[in-house]
Amino acid sequence: MLAGRVGLVTGPAKGMGATITRALAAAGADLLLVARDADAIAPLAAELIATGRRIVVAACDVTREADVAAAMTLVDTAFDGRIDFLVNIAGGSGPLGRPFWENSLTEFEQIMTLNVTGCFLTMRAVMPGMIARGYGRIVNVGGTFGLRGRAGRAAYSASKWGLRGLTKSAALEAGPFGVTVNCVCPGMVEGERFDRVRGDMAERLGITADAARDRMAAEYALRRISTADDVAGAVLFLVGEHARQITGQDIAVDGGWVI
Prior knowledge:
Layout: E1 6-10, H1 16-26, E2 30-35, H2 38-49, E3 55-59, H3 65-79, E4 85-88, H4 105-133, E5 136-141, H5 154-174, E6 179-186, H6 192-205, H7 209-217, H8 228-239, E7 250-253
Parallel strand pairs: 1-2, 1-4, 2-3, 4-5, 5-6, 6-7
């Protein structure tokens, strides 16, 4: 599906990032993997190299312009200057559970910088090459709180709404050059973060963890919590050829929570 393609993935090793990265590699893509902690990527990179994929790792804080520029020099040396697709997974949740007026300016700015500026910098870095080749796929990983407001999540929600605006404007500007830009918006995803949220709910309501899971799943049309594989499937579709006529879209992978 992606044989012969080269991708840049940010935040590739933690949480759903590792599952998405494995799916891209399994589809045949060679990858430049970037994160602030390059050592954290090393085991995953070794695993994928063993399958025959060409994998390059770079330490890169995506919020720093100089770091992104340095990572792009590896594209020239390792992949002949070519990036066919970009998947922006790196991000954070920022201050949670407090009204926005109790968030500090620093907290607000940090999450906006990570979730919006970080994607802007990587998108800007790959776009000239994509335009020159007349081909490119960009997928930003947003979130369902960028589709609905949520009390206690103001900074995070604002950042993901901002990422959607960046995605849509970029899609309009890049479309004439054969480049698609889309946003995958996961809801709650099985994993450590979900377990923490479920545990907090169980403690707060005086119920079991299983009962908390059932209560959360009942909010979704499909009555199940999303998995990292569900999100990876959406990303894989959007970077492939079957999605060539899809751009500027928000794809919610949330079991029907935002309907």
